[in-house]
Design brief:
The protein is of the alpha+beta class. The protein contains eight helices and twelve strands. This is Fe2OG dioxygenase domain-containing protein.
């Protein structure tokens, strides 16, 4: 069997969100459990995020990325204690990568009035654009995908035999980060450069919107040891598990490597919402686990490899 014969499962979440019987609910949980056990990735329809809102989000991305470079750099996420704001092309590189990513990105998170807990919570950075051209649709979209990420996490817990009420243990003030991305066309990318190099996501659930018809995402298929292209379909989200979920589930759910290569002569837009849980919450699936690493500690350990974090930052979150 070649990768041409393999496709990520496409799951209809409406059976969970609006079940007509208990069997609908159970079917979705079973399908998600199987997909995450086999691939670590799946696609969803019937997810409850309005199509008009998705289109408005993509228009907003175009608006912010088309701002003058100097204006975008004034919003640099590297100057922000919460890592909110703009990331220029070439700012992100992982250990082992030959070159930095070609993508540019813009980050937002929970909208909290003051910076707390070494930057995990705090206010967002917003570009100087009319409300209807960016902040309004972006924030509405963030709230809807925040809700969807939580629902997926709830389904994953039930797939492991835990009640959905367990969410209360780590969802009072969850870390939910959203990364809006633009990839340059192939002609503007250096030979051998990726839009995003191969990596796994660090944490919980990722909810990914791809610009319809703009391919580029590839997922590593362990069985075939090949990269599996993921289609960019309208009104279909791509969902995946991060390293934290793989660890917390004892490996029952996979965190799969993935990358982005834009091979076409057009820009490509996408948006990922990452739903992790409270910064100071530890594994709710095994409260007696002597390794009580929190969501925040795992986050700092992961990103310390990519960014220079001050000692005061790591001391506050108690990372050695």
């Amino acid at each position: 069997m070649s990768t041409d014969d393999i496709a990520l499962p496409l799951i209809d979440l409406s059976g969970y969100l609006n079940p007509t019987s208990s069997k609908d609910h159970e079917r979705v949980i079973a399908e998600v459990r199987e997909a995450c056990s086999q691939y670590g990735f799946f696609q969803v329809k019937g997810h409850g995020v309005p199509l008009d809102l998705q289109k408005g989000l993509l228009r907003s991305l175009t608006n912010v990325f088309n701002l003058p470079k100097e204006e975008k750099l004034q919003l640099s996420f590297l100057e922000n204690p919460c890592r909110r704001g703009y990331e220029a092309s070439g700012m992100s590189i992982r250990d082992g990568d030959a070159m930095a990513d070609s993508k540019e990105a813009f980050y937002i998170g929970r909208e909290d009035p003051v910076v707390e807990h070494p930057g995990f919570y705090g206010p967002n950075v917003w570009p100087n654009l009319p409300e209807q051209d960016f902040r309004g649709p972006v924030w509405e979209y963030y709230q809807k995908t925040d809700q969807l990420g939580k629902i997926i996490f709830e389904i994953l817990l039930q797939g492991l035999g835990f009640p959905s009420s367990l969410m209360e243990a780590f969802s009072k003030r969850p870390l939910v980060q959203m990364k809006m991305i633009r990839y340059p066309p192939a002609s503007a990318t250096l030979a051998g450069q990726f839009g995003v190099g191969a990596h796994t996501d660090f944490g919980g659930v990722t909810v990914l919107l791809q610009q319809p018809g703009r391919e580029g995402l590839e997922v590593w298929h362990e069985g075939k040891e090949e990269w599996l292209p993921v289609p960019a379909l309208e009104d279909v989200y791509v969902i995946n598990c991060g390293d934290m979920i793989q660890k917390w589930s004892g490996g029952q759910y996979k965190s799969a490597k993935h990358r982005v290569i834009n091979k076409d002569e057009h820009e490509r837009l996408s948006c990922a919402t990452f739903w992790h849980g409270d910064a100071y919450a530890s594994n709710p699936l095994n409260p007696s686990d002597p390794n009580r690493e929190t969501v925040g500690q795992l986050l700092v350990k992961r990103f310390a490899r990519q960014f220079s974090l001050s000692k005061s930052f790591t001391d506050q979150i108690q990372v050695s």
